[in-house]
Design a protein that fits this description.
The protein is of the alpha/beta class. The chain folds into 2 domains: 193 residues, 3-Layer(aba) Sandwich (Rossmann fold), CATH 3.40.50.300; 205 residues, P-loop containing nucleotide triphosphate hydrolases (Rossmann fold, 3-Layer(aba) Sandwich). It is built from 18 helices and 18 strands. It has a 6-stranded mixed beta sheet, with helices on both faces. A 6-stranded mixed beta sheet has the order 14-15-16-12-17-18. It has a 3-stranded antiparallel beta sheet with strand order 2-1-4, with helices on one face. A hairpin with a 2-residue loop joins strand 10 and strand 11. The radius of gyration is 28 Å and the shape is globular. The two termini are 37 Å apart.
């Protein structure tokens, strides 16, 4: 069980959540919903004990397994399977067992005796945590999440960002934590893995809080919903499944509107009646004051109807002029240690062309974009920029953002010097950054807010080639539609990596590049069918 008492959340002076108390009991599977920037990720961090509360406290009578939205700092030299086993502390125990075995074989009798005793104690602890059957369980979870066994002994540093996130999810699920706190767990998962995860979470016996923009996951898994209202900073609780929550919330908002309309009608009637009595006798003037007081009281009691969530007016400007082929890659290869990611890739991106890169997780899609963007070097070949080429790169893990800078200063550093401050502030406003948020540190933004900021930075560049890596991850449905609309109307060239079929349809690409082999083909319906599986 997890209990939050009098919890208040703030980022600087900005109130995200007013004092709130709630309990997550055994068997509760809560969906935490609300628009981007409402504070969902911050609330989950606070429940996990990873950020400070403005007020209140969080207590738990068991362990907490927390999957953050942004990648954790981990030892990149650690083997993949060891990282998963560390969810129950088994990886450390296995190393200690190996050391105890060496001591047992020592020629020194005292050392050998100590090793034998230590081995017995460690083996007992190892067995109590599930032992070798637990290893089989961890392997099954990994395979179900699309992590092939050939990667088990590979260092984490050799894996793609998507593969490392799958490893973190596997570690959390394997941990047997009493309460699971999962922030966008379906990011980087293919369709089969998502289906398996839904089944796993539906049968999870303890508590669960999940943030997800995957409506089907919420519909299939959660049995209660908490809506974090960005306009009122309140957490509205619904002890209902997702579909019934949508109906109940719509009905509640409709009742609130009608109550407000009736109250406003009564306030107008009282004001008109009071106006008729002013300036005559003292008795009528006193009655006018009474009517004014009644009108004021009603106005104060009117329940505020939720302001319709604003939508970012995302639009990419006309790209700068460039030559016929602004970007070329010739015989590009990349390896990490003994792991060959891709070899001998050739591609030419023509002015205004649209290309989607497809391949299984780990095929090198993100790595290829980094090479094209100049973020990582290619082991072989070269990148050639054509006349007037301006390349803009959107990184799925927001590596291009300076987390220590403020929102405004970061965008100022990316914008041309000729861009006026008022235009910069207007641009941030169109991407839903208030004056208050412009002074906020980038590292404190939610995943969706970081996405909007990174896209705003691209807008300032006038880029004529966009390299986009999962640009719709972490976006609420409304913001997602805005991003896709901006992509659809953009006149420059785009190279896109995504698991989102809707993003590909919005881009309407002419070509696909298939990794790891580097084969090119014209886009057709068959490729749309495999996008979510890649």
């Amino acid at each position: 069980m997890l209990r939050a008492v009098g919890v208040e959340l703030r980022i600087g002076p900005r109130l995200l959540l007013e004092e709130t108390t709630f309990t997550l009991n055994v068997g509760d599977r809560m969906g935490l919903v609300g628009r981007n920037g409402a504070g969902k990720t911050t609330l989950l961090k606070a429940l996990a004990g990873e950020t400070q509360l403005a007020k209140g406290e969080v207590t738990s009578n068991g362990s907490i397994g927390y999957l953050p939205q942004d990648p954790r700092s981990v030892d990149l030299e650690q083997d993949t399977f060891e990282r998963v086993l560390s969810g129950r502390g088994l990886s450390d125990l296995k190393r200690e067992l190996v050391l105890a075995t060496h001591k047992m074989s020592s020629k020194d009798e005292h050392t050998a005796a100590h090793g034998t005793k230590l081995y017995g104690e460690l083996e007992h602890r190892f067995s109590s945590l599930g032992g070798y059957s637990a290893e089989a369980e961890a392997e099954a979870i990994c395979l179900s999440l699309g992590i092939p066994s050939r990667l088990f002994q590979s260092p984490l540093g050799n894996l793609s960002g998507g593969q490392r996130r799958r490893i973190e999810l596997a570690r959390i699920l394997f941990s047997n934590a009493t309460t699971l706190l999962l922030d966008e767990p379906t990011n980087h998962l293919d369709a089969d893995s998502i289906q398996w995860l839904k089944g796993y979470l539906r049968t999870h016996k303890s508590g669960l809080i999940v943030i997800s923009h995957d409506v089907e996951l919420l519909r299939d898994v959660v049995n209660r919903v908490s809506y974090l209202d960005a306009n009122t900073s309140k957490l509205d609780m619904y002890h209902l499944g997702y579909d019934r929550y949508l109906t109940a919330r719509a009905q509640s908002e409709d009742r609130s509107r009608k109550e407000r309309e009736r109250a406003e009608t009564e306030v107008n009637r009282l004001n008109q009646q009071a106006d008729k009595m002013r300036g005559s006798t003292s008795k009528r003037a006193r009655k006018a004051k009474v009517l004014d007081a009644r009108a004021s009281k009603i106005e104060g009691s009117i329940q505020q109807v939720r302001v319709k969530d604003k939508v970012a007016k995302m639009r990419f400007p006309e790209p700068a002029y460039c030559g016929r082929t602004p970007l070329q890659g010739m015989f590009l290869s990349k390896t990490y240690g003994s792991l060959e990611v891709f070899m001998g890739i050739d591609l030419a991106i023509d002015r205004g062309s649209k290309v989607v890169i497809l391949g299984l997780n780990g095929a090198g899609k993100t790595t290829l974009l980094k090479v094209l963007a100049g973020v990582e070097p290619s082991d072989t070949g070269e990148i050639k920029l054509g006349h007037g080429a301006l390349v803009g790169y959107y990184a799925q893990e927001h590596e291009t953002l300076d987390h220590e800078e403020t929102v405004y200063r970061f965008l100022r550093s990316k914008a041309p010097g000729s861009m006026e401050d008022r235009d910069l502030r207007s641009l941030l406003g169109s991407f839903l950054f208030t004056s208050e948020m412009m002074a906020q540190r980038v590292g404190t933004l939610s995943g969706g807010e970081k996405t909007r900021l990174a896209l705003a930075a691209l807008v300032t560049t006038g880029a004529n080639v966009l390299l986009l890596d999962e640009p719709t991850n972490n976006l609420d449905p409304i913001s997602r539609e805005q991003v896709l609309g901006a992509l659809n109307s953009y006149k420059g060239a785009v190279v896109l990596v995504t698991h989102d079929p809707g993003a590909v349809r919005a881009l309407d690409p002419e070509r696909v590049l298939l990794l790891p082999d580097g084969d090119e083909d014209f886009m057709n319906d068959e490729y749309y069918e495999i996008i979510s599986l890649s």
